[in-house]
Amino acid sequence: MKLKDSNILLLGAAGGIGRHLAAGLLERGANLGLNGFTQDELHNLREFLSDAPPNFFTVAADISRQEDRQKCLDAMLDNYGGIDILINLAGINAFTTFESQSAESIEKIINVNTLAPMLMSHAVLPHMLARKKGQIVNVGSTFGSIGFPCFTAYSTSKFALRGFSQSLRRELADSGIQVTYIAPRAVHTPLNSPAVYEMAREIKMNFDEPEFVADELRKAIDAGRKEEYIGFPESLFARINGILPGMVDHSLKHQVPAMRRHAQKDAG
Question: I need a labelling partner for 125 at 20 to 30 A (CA). Which of 15, 132, 248, 249 fits?
Answer without folding.
Answer: 15
